[in-house]
Amino acid sequence: MTPEEKYELFEQKVSGEISSKEDETLSLLIDNDKIVAEEFRVYKEWSSYLDSNLNSTQEQSDLENNLKEAGAAFFETKSTKKEIKVIRIPSWGYAVAASIVIILGVYTFSKGGATYSNFVSIPELSITERSGEDGLIKKAEEAFNSKSYNVAEKYLSELLKNDSANSEYLFYYGITLVEQDKNREASEVFVNLQQGNSGYKYKALWFEALNQLKQENMDRCAELLKLLPQDAEDYQQAQELLKKL
Amino acid sequence: MGNNKTHADQKYIEALLKNDTIVIKEIYEKFAPKVVGYIKKNSGDESKAQDIIQETLIVIYKQATEKKLVLTCPFDAYFFLLCKRKWLNELKKNTTKEVTINEEVVSINDESVQYADETLVFEARNELFAEVFDQLGKACKELLKATFTIKSMEEVALKLDQSYGYVRKKKSLCIGQLTKMVQSSPKYNQIKNLL
Asked: Quick check: is A129 in a domain?
């Protein structure tokens, strides 16, 4: 058998176009000649390699782009978080400490069920970056902290008109919406924040999980909770809630 | 490994195959910190870690596409081992750098090691095949590209204005040539028993 005939037989076998007689010939050849057996093994490897590599270039490049974005977002968030730790701890620290105290003091997770009211802990609104809109900010803070969420929504919405990307306004605006059962609008706000790289990224994820819990979408809630990284502020609570779900 | 049950972490492999953004983000959130920590402890930085993670995920994707990779062990240890070995290979390439290896942060079982080994052999094979394919003549390259992307041999024959029999024969000769080229490569001898 010439090498040409041998390769053609290999090809027929690999592409499933081999007749039973030729298949028998090839099997005999492979069984009796280790060199041919090895050649056939490499031939099959090539076929599989070419099929995969010459075909999937578009899919692979789409995945590469997506991985680049996900990687960049992950590493940027890491470094942003570090900066935030340094710059914003004075304002955040109090809010965090206050939330933890409230959480520990008020909620007894072992007794409560997996409900929104058992797990939500609304942080106090204390706008950290003052602009020229002090009057409006003060009204928003007063309304929010006195739980007049419909009023706070209006003021925060006013503030957002001039500063639509302000993640702090957006986060608290989202809370006013959840508290008023405007769940769909709240989701839009929180999902938007999650996709960004602000310090509210994971707070927004946590609140979106609570938003889903409030609507009794338990599966979706659990999916979101699993996305919270271990170093997120609400990680422990998320784990508690996951256990109950 | 084939007798064991598919692990729940197969979802990460599926996510790569489906290019599922949410689960891909989850992969970074859950598994990247450990890799970053290891690379930083061993003469690297975050930017190197980002490259190693991306390259590793692409290799896993390729293996899943071509070899239908099915995990029966946790993704965590498998992925970490792969990243670690890739990083050590990277360090070895740069001999001027002093290498201090700080060992292990995850518990590694035999199955994870076996999976990681298979993926590394698969990657070595890919690198060798890519090199060899580059050396192939232009006519063969074009014919193979046409036959593997168009799929229907009849259509390829029509496009190349040749008979079906001729195209199939030519295809087999080109792959035969690649087979010979690879077998005569010294690198092939290092991986052939592992393939």
From this structure: yes
The reply to whether B185 touches chain A by the CB within 8 Å rule is no
pTM summary value: 0.58
Whether residue A114 is found in the same domain as residue A194: yes
Complex confidence, ipTM: 0.85
CA distance B192 to chain A (A): 9
Q: Digits of tens for pLDDT over chain B (195 positions)?
A: 445 688 999 999 999 999 998 999 999 999 999 999 999 988 889 999 999 999 999 999 999 999 998 998 899 999 999 999 999 988 887 755 455 555 554 455 678 888 888 898 899 999 999 999 999 999 999 999 988 888 788 888 888 888 888 899 999 999 999 999 999 988 888 777 666
Dist CA B176 CA B151 (whole Å): 19
**Token pair for B130:** 């890519």
Q: Do B98 and B142 belong together in one domain? A: no
Q: Is residue B66 part of a domain?
A: yes
- In this structure, chain A runs to a length of 245
- Residue that terminates a domain, selected from B127, B146, B171: B127
Please tell me if residue A94 touches chain B, with a CB cutoff of 8 Å. no
Does the distance separating the beta carbons of B171 and A59 come in below 8 Å?
A: no
Interface check A5 vs B, CB under 8 A: no
Domain residues for A149? 89-244
